[in-house]
Every structure is written in structure tokens, then in C-alpha cells.
Amino acid sequence: MGVFARIREDIAMARTHDPAAHSKAEVLLGYSGVHAVWAYRVTHKLWLGGYRLPARLLSQFARFLTGVEIHPGASIGRRLFIDHGMGVVIGETAVVGDDVMLYHGVTLGGKSRHGLVPGAQRHPTLHDGVTVGAGAKILGPVTLGAWSTVGANAVVTKDAPARSILLGVPARMQPGTAEEIKAARGLLKSEL
């Protein structure tokens, strides 16, 4: 997929998920979460090409501009949408699938460096379609199954199967039907 096709896809994703997005131009020029994803794509290519210092420096500059920190070593799929953006952190070994939505203040972080082998998975894996509410923290090498929903301010430290709803501190898993997940996603939007 070409660069311009990806940009169009990202803009369409933002307009689909954010009712406040009134035009393509507004998303193109004013959405920091979208800009952060675009910057990540550049830094990730540099990272994979072995240009790690330039990748990290550009990543930090993008963080300064957008308020979103995405490590260039993270693996991110297509159509990631970061709504509002500010305060989002995605760690080096995080894996994010396609069609994932993150609200502001989300952390996909590690728990500890103790006892970990260099290069080991120490950040979360989010499968396709996961939605993570504002302020939620997903910590350590946990896996969230496809189409799961994490409530605002939840702290997730354990794996969850597909279509789960995770709420609370520490997060408690509730298997969800398609209707329950849609309802939870509606609640997430109203919490903002």
C-alpha cells in the first residue's frame, strides 16, 4: 500500500471514529494522534533499517510536537486511531493490530526490567479491533484478544481472550457479547 493510500485510510478511520471530525482537511491538519502515527511510520522504517539513533531522535521530536510517544521499535498495524492523543505511550516491544483505537492517556508499557532478556517481549500485544479507554494502563507482556474493550482508567496486567470487556483496578475480565462490546464502546466515548 502506498503512502498516500495509507494517509487516506488514516483520515477515513479518524472520521469514522470521531464524530467531531467535520472534514478531511481538519483531520489532516489538526489531529495530533494521526500525526503521531505518521511520524511513527517514518521512525519505524529508520529503526528497521538500523538507523536507531536518528529514529529515536525523530521519535522524541514527534513526541514534543504531538504529546504522543510511540517507540520506533513497536509493531503497529493499519488504521490505528489515537483520539485526542495527549499522554499516550506505546513501548518498544508493543504489538498493535489493525483497527485499534486508543483514547488519551493510554499506556502500553512494561512492568519491570528485572529478569528480562534483551529483546524479550515486555510490552502488551493488542489484537485487531481493540479499544482502550482514556487513562487505561496495559502493563507487561499481556495479550488482549481481538475486539476487546478496556474501560477508562483500568489497569490490565493479565491476558484476556477475544471480545472481553476489562474494567477496574486491577482490571477484571468480563466476556462480552457483540452487543455488550458496542455498548461499552459507547460508554467509553461518553466518558471523555
From TrEMBL:
Family, according to the entry, reads as follows:
Belongs to the transferase hexapeptide repeat family.
Q: Which InterPro entries match?
A: Hexapep (IPR001451), LbH_SAT (IPR045304), Ser_AcTrfase_N_sf (IPR042122), Ser_O-AcTrfase (IPR005881), Serine_acetyltransferase (IPR053376), Trimer_LpxA-like_sf (IPR011004)
Which PANTHER family does this one have? Answer: SERINE ACETYLTRANSFERASE (PTHR42811)
- Alphabetical keyword list: Acyltransferase, Amino-acid biosynthesis, Cysteine biosynthesis, Transferase
**Lineage, opening ranks:** Bacteria, Bacillati, Actinomycetota, Actinomycetes, Micrococcales
Offer one Pfam family short name for this entry: Hexapep
Q: Which SUPFAM superfamilies match?
A: Trimeric LpxA-like enzymes
Its EC number(s)? 2.3.1.30
Root EC class: transferase
> Mind telling me which NCBIfam families this protein's record contains?
cysE, EPS_EpsC
Reactions catalysed according to its record: L-serine + acetyl-CoA = O-acetyl-L-serine + CoA
What CDD domains does the entry give? LbH_SAT
Classify the source by domain of life: Bacteria
Q: Which GO terms describe its cellular component?
A: cytoplasm
- Keyword Cytoplasm listed? The answer is no
Q: What protein name is recorded for this chain?
A: Serine acetyltransferase
Q: Does the keyword Acyltransferase apply?
A: yes
Pathway in which the depicted protein is active: Amino-acid biosynthesis; L-cysteine biosynthesis; L-cysteine from L-serine: step 1/2
Alphabetical GO biological process terms: cysteine biosynthetic process from serine
The molecular function terms in GO held by this entry are:
serine O-acetyltransferase activity
